[in-house]
Write a structure and sequence with these properties.
The structure is a homodimer of 220-residue chains. Chain A is α/β, with parallel strands linked by helices and 220 residues long. Chain A is built from eight helices and seven strands; from the N terminus they run αβαβαβαββααβαβα.
Chain lengths: 220, 220
C-alpha cells in the first residue's frame, strides 16, 4: 500500500505541474505533441520526415528525452530546428517538471509546435502527463501486431497510432488489420496512420493531420 | 528525496527476496535466465527456437511477464513446455515477489532451466534482480545500432547481448560492429550472439552457451 500511495503522490504532483503547463501552452497558442513508443520504433526518423515539410510554415521546437546521449537532438538540429536534449540518467520517462525546466530554452511567444519525444518505453510514459495536447504512439511493423493488446495503457491515453516501417511489411509477420483491431478495441477513437520514412508512405497524411491540429490551436 | 528513499526501499526489499530465490535455485541446481528487451525484439521467438533444441535434454520451465494477454505463455506451451503467465496489469517490470509466487506452479526438484521472459522494456527491468544467474538482453536489428549507448543501464547488468533479426540486416540501417562497440564500451565482458529466428542463424551457438551454463550449474 505504501508503494501505491507514494506513486499516487508522485503522479498527482506531476498532474498539477502538467495542468499549469497546459494553461501556459494554451495562452501561447502552442500545440504540444508527446510522441511515445518502444525504443527504436522510429520516432526520430518520423520527426525528421515530418518536420522537413512543416518547418518553413511553422515555428517548431523539439524536446528529446533519452537516458543517455544527445544523438536525437543532434539529428533534429541538422534540420535547422531548435532541439533540447533531456538526459534522464536512469529514469524511464519524462516528467512535467523536466519539461518546465526545458522551456527556458525556447521562445514560446514565437512557437507554433512543440514536440516532446519521450524516452523509448511503451509502459511508463503513459502515466505521466506533460501538459501536451495529445499523445501519439508509434508501433513499428517489426514489433508484432499484438503490441496494442499487450501494452493497452499506452493505447488508452493516445489520440493517434502511427504504424511505422511499412516498407518492411513484406519481410515480417505483421497483420496490419489485426494490429488496428486490437488498438481500436481499446481506444475506438484512435486515429490511425501508416508510415514509412524510407519510401515516404503516409508522411503527408500524418503531416496534414498535425498541421490541422496546429492551426486549430492557433485559432482557439 | 522522498521519492529516491522509497525507490531504495522497494529495491532493497526486492534484493532480499531475490537473494533468497538465488539460494533456492542454487540448492535445486536450476539455472535461471532473465531475458530482457524492448517490446517486439523477438524474445519469445528466440525461446521457441532455442527450447525446441533443448527440451529433450533438459527439464525446462518458463515464466512469461506481460502487462496483459497470455499470448506468449500459449506459444511456449505449444512446445510441450510448462509456462506460467504473470500479467502485471500496469507494472513495467517483474519483481522477485512475483517470481516467488509463480514458483508454486513448478517442480524445482525436477527442473534444470528456468527462463523468465520479462516485460518488454529496456529500462525498468534492469533495476530488479529476480534471483537469476544472469540477464541476457536482446536488441533487434530494426531498433538501431545506438541502443546500447542510449540504454546503458540494461547493458551494464547483462551477461550477454543477442542481436536478433539478422535476416533483416539488408533492409535496415544497422551497423552491427557499431552496436557491439557501444555495448562492449559499457560492459567489456559481454558475450555477443547474432541470431535470426527466420533463418536459424546463430541459434545453435547461443543454445550451446545456454546448455553449458545449465551443465555448469548442475555440477556446482
Amino acid at each position: 500500500m505504501e508503494k501505491i500511495n507514494i506513486e499516487e503522490k508522485i503522479l498527482s504532483k506531476n498532474i498539477k505541474k502538467a495542468d499549469a503547463l497546459r494553461e501556459l501552452f494554451k495562452e501561447k497558442g502552442v500545440f504540444v505533441l508527446n510522441l511515445v513508443s518502444s525504443p527504436g520504433s522510429g520516432k526520430t526518423s518520423i520527426l525528421e520526415s515530418t518536420l522537413t515539410g512543416l518547418k518553413d510554415k511553422y515555428n517548431i521546437g523539439v524536446i528529446e528525452g533519452d537516458l543517455q546521449t544527445d544523438n536525437d537532438a543532434k539529428r533534429i538540429r541538422k534540420l535547422g530546428i531548435k532541439a533540447h536534449q533531456i538526459n534522464t540518467g536512469g529514469a524511464c520517462h519524462l516528467e512535467a517538471s523536466g519539461i518546465e525546466k526545458s522551456l527556458e530554452q525556447f521562445d514560446l511567444d514565437n512557437m507554433d509546435l512543440l514536440i516532446i519525444e519521450n524516452v523509448g518505453n511503451l509502459v511508463c510514459p503513459s502515466s505521466f502527463d506533460l501538459g501536451e495536447d495529445c499523445k501519439v504512439v508509434v508501433i513499428s511493423t517489426t514489433e508484432g501486431d499484438d503490441k496494442p493488446a499487450k501494452y493497452p495503457s499506452m493505447i488508452r491515453v493516445s489520440s493517434a497510432l502511427i504504424i511505422n516501417k511499412t516498407d518492411l511489411l513484406e519481410h515480417v509477420d505483421f497483420n496490419t488489420e489485426e494490429c488496428i483491431k486490437y488498438a481500436k478495441g481499446i481506444q475506438p477513437d484512435l486515429k490511425i496512420f501508416q508510415t514509412s520514412c524510407k519510401t515516404g508512405e503516409g508522411i503527408k497524411h500524418w503531416s496534414s493531420w498535425l498541421a490541422e491540429a496546429i492551426e486549430s490551436k492557433r485559432k482557439s
